[in-house]
Amino acid sequence: MSTLLEISNLHASFGRGEDEVRAVRGASLNIERGETHALVGESGSGKSVTALSVMQLLPYPLA
Question: Which long-range contacts (CB under 8 A, 24 or more apart) does 20-25 make?
Answer without folding.
Answer: 23/49, 24/49, 24/50, 24/53
